[in-house]
Design brief:
The chain has 649 residues and is of the alpha/beta class. It is 46% helix and 10% strand. About 2% of the residues have low confidence.
Length: 649
């Protein structure tokens, strides 16, 4: 063997082996790279085909809608009158013949199609099926006996509570014949064979699901954008986000393109869009309602984390319409079909203000009911409204809310005091711990593994990039970064970084124990203050510009706190941002000057004129009490849905 000077067979074999390993590694990398690129190309083609199908159908539907418009001889004044009415007024009008079923569906179909084109709030449209359903309902109603429109129980029994009301259904809630893409290309062209129980129960009451609202990719962003359907635009300012994940539905309601929409909420996904778009929203008690047909962007359509539960709920332009949906769902059919749901009927007495706790809820909670008659459905309309003790706060002890929040909460408190309630300052306990636990539990799989499995090869949306960077940070780098953030005074970042690391089973169990203990401490603090309800800011900021939410996600404690403890909570639009309320550092309470608050300050610039809301929360299974307080704010005049100029009413 000819061996060069200084070289041995061993070193030559070592060099050859190293070269071979490098070639294999490079080959493996390139193979994976090209396989990934091929998969992404396939998914992009599927998404494009999905949009093309929608758009072809949209063109066909527009011709159909204009044909029907001419046939019914609709005037512009009549169309605007119908669009301006809330769902309960429309339903009553269709029951007594004031409004035609077909003309109502036609008006909202035309407006929804326009909202889809101009604000990208729509994923799929079913106006042809909706018009057919409306025509069949009209035929049924012609021979129906008149029903008392002031007797909800009678309307529920006859299936006419939501007669002829068009309803938008969020993309992630199953609806027969519709995709549930959840903003994922892999979910395109897979229509559901059946309705979710939510949708089925709405249909039983005469509602007409007619359009699907857009969502963010994988549903876990407070703005609505994805690689399939694109970005939804805020009706108040197209440069701002609708919020997420029920962003398309909130925009449809704000534009008066749907009287009612159905969303879902696990961290604020109903309430953030309602807040951003100036409409009402309700996140109910999750244990009180079925989860049938409410899908997750994960393999098997089920979320791995189960401690923090999402809830389906309505968005609308008034509180009574939220109550209509709640009544339609809280019926024996829900409990029969889903035995995990406790049979707690809608308490008209609690909603009317006659009692603080329904008899059914009191039995579950082990507390005495304020009125035993409530369980039998006795009329409490003549009872004097019960006086409530309502806590309130502007700063939750973790994240300062924009200056408008202070004015909004104070105005809401003044309205409730005018209604005779006792309002007391209150701050939830240890929200910093709640923030850390929420993020720790939602990221326990490590490296956003659950998200990635649901993507099925699609690239993660850029709005997740900061979350992804923290989730994938190697252990030693994470430790160094945490120490550096502590030295730099970035305490909130230093707390978050260790929380979002991958967990062992033992570490996750420890978080679970801490979660249970936190919920117990929260319940104890509520009980010690003897509260019936709480009023707080709708969110930390009004609607922010597109792609800004990734910088301020950890500040959204005002919404996800209520998901942590599973309390029902609703959103009431009460204010708009004033010109002199765009300085975040002028917010009430301590404002930590860290990277999050600096981004929040920048995001608040240019927000004058945008809607701002308060939230109303109550104990689990007291959804009707939440609705009652929301309605009292509405009756005072402070709580009212805004009408963006783009609604053209």
């Amino acid at each position: 063997m000819d061996v060069s000077a200084g070289q041995t067979p061993l070193t030559l074999w070592g060099a050859a082996l190293s070269a071979a390993i490098a070639v294999v590694a490079a080959s493996s990398y390139l193979t994976k790279y090209f396989r990934r690129q091929k998969r992404r190309s396939q998914l992009a083609a599927r998404a494009a085909a999905c949009r093309e199908t929608r758009d072809r159908k949209r063109d066909m539907l527009q011709k159909l809608l204009m044909k029907v418009y001419m046939e019914v001889k609709m005037t512009l004044a009549r169309a605007r009158e119908i669009a301006s009415q809330p769902a309960h007024v429309l339903a009553a009008g269709m029951r007594d013949g004031k409004y035609g079923h077909v003309e109502v569906t036609l008006v909202f179909s035309l407006r929804a199609q326009n909202a889809g084109r101009e604000f990208n709030s729509v994923t799929e449209e079913f106006y042809d099926e909706a018009l057919d359903t409306a025509a069949s309902l009209a035929t049924r109603s012609d021979g129906a006996a008149p029903a008392r429109s002031d007797d909800p129980a009678a309307l529920v029994r006859t299936g006419r509570l939501l007669e002829g009301v068009p309803v938008s259904i969020k993309d992630c809630v199953s609806m027969r014949g519709a995709d549930s893409t959840m903003g994922l290309a892999a979910r395109c062209q897979q229509p559901s064979a059946e309705d979710s129980l939510f949708v089925e129960l709405l249909r039983r009451q005469g509602a007409i699901p007619f359009v699907r609202g857009n969502v963010p990719q994988a549903l876990m962003l407070p703005e609505t954008d994805n690689n399939v359907w694109g970005t939804s635009l805020n009706p108040w300012n197209p440069l701002r986000t609708t919020g997420g994940s029920s962003g398309g539905d909130a925009a449809l309601v704000a534009l008066r393109a749907a009287p009612i929409a159905i969303g879902t909420d696990i961290g604020g996904s109903i309430r953030i869009p309602a807040h951003n778009c100036g409409v009402f929203g309700l996140k109910p008690t999750p244990q009180r309602f079925t989860h049938h047909g409410k899908l997750a962007p994960r393999p098997g359509n089920v979320d791995g984390p189960q401690l923090i539960k999402s809830a389906a709920g309505p968005l609308a332009t008034c509180v009574e319409d939220l109550a209509l949906v709640t009544r339609a769902w809280l019926v024996p059919e829900m409990w029969r079909r889903d035995p995990t749901v406790p049979p707690v009927p809608f308490s008209e007495a609690m909603y009317a203000g006659g009692v603080k706790t329904s008899a059914a809820a009191a039995e579950l909670l082990g507390a005495p009911a304020d009125a035993a008659a409530d369980a039998s459905g006795a009329d409490s309309s003549t009872s004097a409204p019960t006086r409530l003790r309502i806590g309130y706060y502007v700063h939750d002890g973790y994240a300062a809310a924009a200056p408008t929040a202070g004015r909004a909460v104070r105005d809401a408190v003044a309205a409730l005091e005018r209604a005779g309630h006792e309002c007391v300052p209150w701050v939830p306990p240890r929200v910093d711990d709640a923030a850390r636990l929420y993020l720790a539990l939602m990221s326990a799989d490590g490296g956003m593994a659950g998200f990635k499995s649901g993507l099925d090869g699609e690239a993660l949306h850029p709005a997740y990039r900061q979350v992804l960077a923290m989730a994938e940070m190697p252990g030693p780098v994470r430790s160094i970064a945490t120490a550096a953030m502590t030295l730099l005074g970035e305490r909130r970042t230093a707390t978050i970084l260790p929380a979002v690391r991958p967990k062992t089973a033992r570490e996750h169990w420890a978080d679970v124990v801490e979660f249970v203990l936190y919920c117990q401490a929260f319940n104890a603090a509520w009980a010690d203050a003897r509260l019936d309800a709480v009023v707080c800011p709708g969110n930390v900021l009004p609607a922010v510009a597109h792609m800004q939410s990734e910088h301020i996600l950890p500040l959204f404690t005002h919404t996800f706190l209520w998901n942590m403890v599973h309390y029902p909570v609703g959103t009431v639009p009460v204010a708009v941002v004033a010109d002199d309320e765009q300085d975040y550092f002028a917010a009430e309470g301590p404002c930590v000057r860290d990277r999050f608050s600096k981004f929040a300050h920048a995001a608040l610039q240019g927000s004058a004129g945008l809607p701002f809301a308060v939230q109303v929360a109550a104990l689990p299974f007291h959804d009707e009490l939440v609705l009652r307080v929301m309605r009292e704010l509405e009756r005072d005049g402070i709580g009212r849905a805004g009408v963006p100029p783009a609604a053209n009413l």
